[in-house]
């Protein structure tokens, strides 16, 4: 089988946002930009206000008189500072990244992906991992400082591999997790363990989840995945469809080898939300899995 590559960067990896890192500790610059700044407010379910044009921002002047301690500086767009803030409740039309991703432009996707990842980290970092002391936001939300000795702790990103396993010809292995409705399938994924290379993780995770050994591991691309704060690192690998599948770790409840025509047909149907009686429904466009499957399906 010819080698395949992603046709374009994954949707959430197209990140043209100017993060203006040099401003994160520049208190005066942040204060000067606050009166005209825009704030992306996100509730505890990951939803934000939207309209026909995309994201709805809250003027910073309506949030506070100066940069709010619980807000995170995201960067600059069209001369305006952008911030993110977690709030308890929002009114109006609401949507989350999975539901509205296709409606946003590349910069808005970068804004929302970054906002979710950093706010999710803050929600779980109120106390120091070193000594248990309370921490407070610093560097415009890009670190937290311990109240005990002043040491800084930084946002955590959890690396995970995601691998399209194929047979070297025209079949691909797709699986369903126990919490997914029937007929919803995707490619295999798992978190990287301490002391483990990415390639080693691919081999281990696939062996644990479906009981087969893979080879010819090839890097395809990566994508931030703020659920809650991960980065998905995509690979392809070759497996033997004659080896019986074994669901060893309980993370997979069903898996099958599908041929290329079945995958092409499922891609045409849409995504997991499609109304169809097809035995195969595939992830939506914000997932790197979609791009990987499209690239594999496009091979003649």
The percent range for strand residues is 25-35%
Instruction: Indicate the mean pLDDT.
Output: 96
- Helix fraction by DSSP (H/I, runs of at least 4): 10-25%
The 3D shape can be described as: globular
Alpha carbon gap, first and last residue: 9 Å
Low-confidence stretches: none
Largest sheet data: 6 strands, mixed
List the total number of helices.
7
- Strand runs, count: 16
Q: Structural class, judged by helices and strands?
A: alpha+beta
Q: What is the alpha-carbon Rg in Å?
A: 21 Å
The sequence of SSEs as H and E is: HEEEEHEEEHHEEEEEEHEEEHH
Tell me about this structure.
By secondary structure, the chain is an alpha+beta fold. The chain is 22% helix and 28% strand. It is built from 7 helices and 16 strands. It has helices at 27-33, 60-63, 97-100, 106-123, 198-210, 260-269, 288-297; strands at residues 38-42, 48-51, 54-55, 58-59, 71-77, 80-86, 94-95, 135-138, 143-146, 152-153, 158-166, 171-176, 188-191, 215-225, 230-238, 254-259. Strands 11, 12, 13, 14, 15 and 16 form a 6-stranded mixed β-sheet that branches. A 4-stranded mixed β-sheet has the order 4-1-6-5. Helix 6 (260-269) packs across helix 7. The longest helix has 18 residues, at 106-123.
Question: Could you write a compact summary of the structure shown?
Answer:
With 300 residues, the chain is of the alpha+beta class.
């Amino acid at each position: 089988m010819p080698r395949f590559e992603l046709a374009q960067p994954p949707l959430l990896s197209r990140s043209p946002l100017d993060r203006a890192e040099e401003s994160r500790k520049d208190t005066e610059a942040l204060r000067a930009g606050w009166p005209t700044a825009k704030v992306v407010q996100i509730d505890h379910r990951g939803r934000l206000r939207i309209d026909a044009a995309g994201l709805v921002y809250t003027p910073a002047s309506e949030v506070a008189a100066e940069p709010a301690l619980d807000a995170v500086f995201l960067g600059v767009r069209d001369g305006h500072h952008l911030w993110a803030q977690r709030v308890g409740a929002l009114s109006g039309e609401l949507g989350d990244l999975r539901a509205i991703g296709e409606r946003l432009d590349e910069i808005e996707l970068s804004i929302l992906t970054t906002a979710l990842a950093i706010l999710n980290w803050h929600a779980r970092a109120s106390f120091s991992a070193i000594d248990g002391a309370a921490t407070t936001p610093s560097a415009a939300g890009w670190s937290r400082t311990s109240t005990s000795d002043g040491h800084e702790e930084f946002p955590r990103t959890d690396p995970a591999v995601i691998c399209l396993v194929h047979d070297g010809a025209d079949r691909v292995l797709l699986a369903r997790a126990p919490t997914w409705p029937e007929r919803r399938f995707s490619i295999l994924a798992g978190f990287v363990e301490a002391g483990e290379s990415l390639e080693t993780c691919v081999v281990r995770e696939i062996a644990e989840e479906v009981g087969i050994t893979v080879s010819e591991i090839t890097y395809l691309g990566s994508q931030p995945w703020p659920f809650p704060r991960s980065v998905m690192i995509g690979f392809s690998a070759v497996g033997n469809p004659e080896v019986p599948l074994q669901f060893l770790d309980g993370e997979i409840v069903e898996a099958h080898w599908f041929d290329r025509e079945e995958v092409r047909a499922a891609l045409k149907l849409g995504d997991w939300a499609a109304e169809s009686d097809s035995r195969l429904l595939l992830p939506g466009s914000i997932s790197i899995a979609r791009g990987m499957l499209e690239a594999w399906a496009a091979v003649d």
